[in-house]
Amino acid sequence: MHDMMIPFGPAHPALPEPVHLKLFLEGEEVKDVDFSVGYNHKGIERTLEEMDFSKSIFMTGRICGICSSAHSTCFTQGIEKLLDVEIPQKAKIIRTIVFELERLTSHLLWLGMLGHEIGFDTLFMLCFREREYVLDSLELITGKRIVHDINIIGGVRRDIPPEMIKKVNKNLGILKDKVDYLQTLIKKDPLIKKRTVGIGNIDKDDVEKLCLVGPVARASGVPYDIRRTDKYLIYDDLNFKIVTQKDGDSFARAIVRVQEMFESIRLTRQALTLIKPGLIRNKPAMTFTEKEAISRVEAPRGELIYYIRSNTTNKPARVKIRTPTYANLMCLNKVLVGNNLADVPVSLASLDPCLCCTDRVTVVREGKEEIIKLEDLHGHH
Amino acid sequence: MFHAIVDCVGDGLIVDKIKKYCLKKSPWIFHFCTGGCNGCDIEILAAMSPKYDFERFGCLVKGSPRHADIFLITGPVNKKIKSRLVNLYNQIPEPKVVIAMGSCALSTGIFQKAYNVCGPLDKIIPVDVYIPGCPPKPEAIIDGIVKGIEVLAKKVK
Ligand code: SF4
User: Fold this and answer.
1) Does domain B27-156 have CATH number 3.40.50.12280?
2) CATH architecture of the domain with range A44-328
3) Residues B128-143: pLDDT tens digits?
4) Which of A44, A195, A312, B128 has the highest CB neighbour number within 10 Å of its CB?
5) Average pLDDT in the B5-20 region?
């Protein structure tokens, strides 16, 4: 029997989204964790089945505000596989640029949140100040700061004219110096080290057993990156390295994300040089047949999978989404158990959970899928 | 300090005045996401950041509803969170201002047809200020909060 149970959430200061954790303690030490999600569940997969394909792209972009273009790129790629269309090279380049800029905003946001978690609010403010350079570039390219909606079936919505390339390049130049500074800050600051080194360890075996993805896997030494394995968009033509670390603690995850920012800046710059005048969209005939498609991308948090099945109508028959956070939540037990209570927010934040992505869960209890009446689900607290 | 003033003056009038003055100058915000896409929530963080800095109006984002004067809500209100939302609303001391932010909170927006959504927000709790947009820009958020402070000032009177 455990000494005490502490409820954590659903409204809590650690993350902007609602999640409910139950922490079982003995003294200060966490002995067990239980979590309940569903505070964000809206029923998107079901709703997608009732929207036609061209509209549902904008819905998938709103599954998660932070990885909006990851979701919509993945979904449009799937639809393009169903329709067998090849999109113009320029559209691919623009998608890659938006994708990488989004990864930058996501990682900067994460770093800021880590700073906030360990009580280092200056870091939070610094990260958010630098983040504005990326958001400005995104606003320039797509017209929006957060939910970009750049993808449409067969291509992209907006072109990048030459003067824009100059401005974005300039912003990236400034950003690179700032990220450099952030990196030295993280590597040197004793406060950050004290709170993150050796906290929330996951070793390589666990990563492979639990199928963890994204920066969490890479921080434990597993070089798993869909950009390399699947070579979607134009990643095959670009030169980048997969950042890995060995230690698998919160500090390693921070370093992985910071170094990925440099890679993203490099990738965006390379992609910008590839832009040549040309078409940005091949408008396909929207005739669907009974078919299935699986599409994968490397979202800022890891591998994102869409499964789409179509029938002869212009609405999907089924869409199934597997988000990176859903995969990574499996290691919550490993990360939190054995830690001090005060380290819970840090370890939790170091996984970078995104619950808006995650809350589309089917109920599976003791290995069996249970059919639960809708009313029960609503009353389920 | 308040006790000292009460002792000198003998009635609560001046205390009330000071309290009202303070409330208008430093409204604290409690932010709650009722199941939106997170886009709005990160824009609130961006509005706190050095470029926009809404803290210059005396606002501070707080982690507890009991400290708050302004309740800033995003998202289309899903069925599981509805009861928690009402709880939180009741925990905020009077006078309070409720600000609905983003098309989700205003009209449930793109999630209108989703089965687990029971918004819009103003069907559940009274709303004073609406900030439209998906997500609203930080400038719009600041504008909404300033309007919220005006409403708060009226409520205090
Ligand atoms: S209004 Fe738009 S950005 Fe805000 S939570 Fe809703 S879908 Fe997301």
Assistant:
1) yes
2) Orthogonal Bundle (1.10)
3) 999 998 889 889 999 9
4) A44
5) 64
